[in-house]
Amino acid sequence: MAVAEGDVGTVRSFNRFYTGVIGVLGEGLVRTPYSLTEARVIFELAQRSETEVLALRRALDLDPGYLSRLLARFETDGLVERERAPDDARRQIARLTPRGREVFAMLDERSVAEIRGLLDGLSAGDRSRLLAAMRSIEDVLGDRPGGDGFVLRPLRPGDLGWMVERNGALYHLECGWDRSYEALVASVVADYVRDHDPRRENAWIAESGGERVGGVFCVRRTDDVAQLRLLHVEPDARGMGIGAALVGECVRFAAETGYSEIMLWTTALQRPAHRIYERAGFVLEAEEPPVERFGDVIHGQVWRKRL
Predict the structure, then answer these.
(1) Which end of the chain is less packed: N or C, by CB atoms within 10 Å?
(2) Looking at residue 15, what is its pLDDT?
């Protein structure tokens, strides 16, 4: 179907409007000497102790020559250090200096303050509408598809109740488990909300065609160990790679957050999930003695993966 000229005009009008709202057309972003692109480079470098320049260029889709000149200027200004990778001289590594991290902190603080000021000026209803619209744009145009026909997204209102409902219904249908399992799921979800640490815990919902088809939680078990919990994929959506994508997102988050290990508890019944865990690098560590739980005899298992 051809794109209508009016639709193109709507997108262009929105782009002009929003760039004015967030001030990216001024001489410097958030009243600093740095352009939007320069600030993005500083932000990306601040996310880790060191970054391969090729990966940085690909992440930001920047011209190699332009990025090289920009990093050279940052180096001259004392914001960035560059060196060849010790294991491969063809690879160049960049990192922020202490001065560079001070600049990042200043940019980050001012950006948060401006956004907070924007949201503070809205009523609760308008703020909710704005954030929902932004999430919708990110869902439609985002570059994190989980596979053929689905996307992974953060939690939204209603998702927690959906996870409890669908886990309870599905495990009753497929395993014959009673309502005590649904009560366990509800307690896991309640604990996630009650004790949530946004820096070290996260959760994702898989969507296909605008409908929820799966979900998973990554929570703190100890300071060094993360736990994958409540992996769920709807029966009609199996075979699309959703389970592998959800597990992969948990592993990625746990590694980037600084955990040294991720573990999970499951049962011997969940053989399709076992295959997903094995492909993700988990190893079956222990099998528990059979116990009566959920109206059934359960053979619990503990799986672990070093990060």
Answers:
(1) N
(2) 76
In this structure, the chain runs to a length of: 307
> Which segments of 27-123 does DSSP mark as H helices, in order?
36-46, 53-60, 64-76, 98-120
Return the pLDDT at 60: 82
Hunting for tokens 């639709």 — which residue is that? 7
For the beta carbon of residue 57, count every other beta carbon within 10 angstroms.
Answer: 17
CA 165 to each of CA 184, 193, 221: distance values in angstroms, whole numbers, following the listed order: 12, 17, 24
Q: What pLDDT does 155 receive?
A: 92
Residue 147 has a pLDDT of 47
Where residue 95 falls (left for φ over 0; alpha for ψ -120 to 50; beta otherwise) is: beta
Q: How far apart are CA 144 and CA 151, in angstroms?
A: 6
Tokens 């932000």, residue located:
43
Per-residue pLDDT, 127? 79
Instruction: Report the SS3 class of residue 195.
Output: coil
**303 exposed, middle or buried (CB, 10 Å; 0-12, 13-18, 19+)?**
buried
| Interaxial angle between packed helices 98-120 and 36-46, expressed in degrees from 0 to 180 and rounded to the nearest 10 | 110
Give residue 115's pLDDT.
81
> Rounded to 5 degrees, what angle do the CA atoms 63, 64, 65 make?
95
Residue ranges of the chain with per-residue pLDDT less than 50: 25, 144-147
pLDDT score, position 193 = 93
How far apart CA 143 and CA 304 sit, in angstroms, is: 29
Alpha-carbon span 122 to 124, nearest angstrom: 6
As a whole number of angstroms, the distance between CA 143 and CA 156 comes to: 19
Sorted by sequence, the CB contacts under 8 Å of residue 299 that are 6+ apart come out as 267, 268, 269, 287, 288, 290
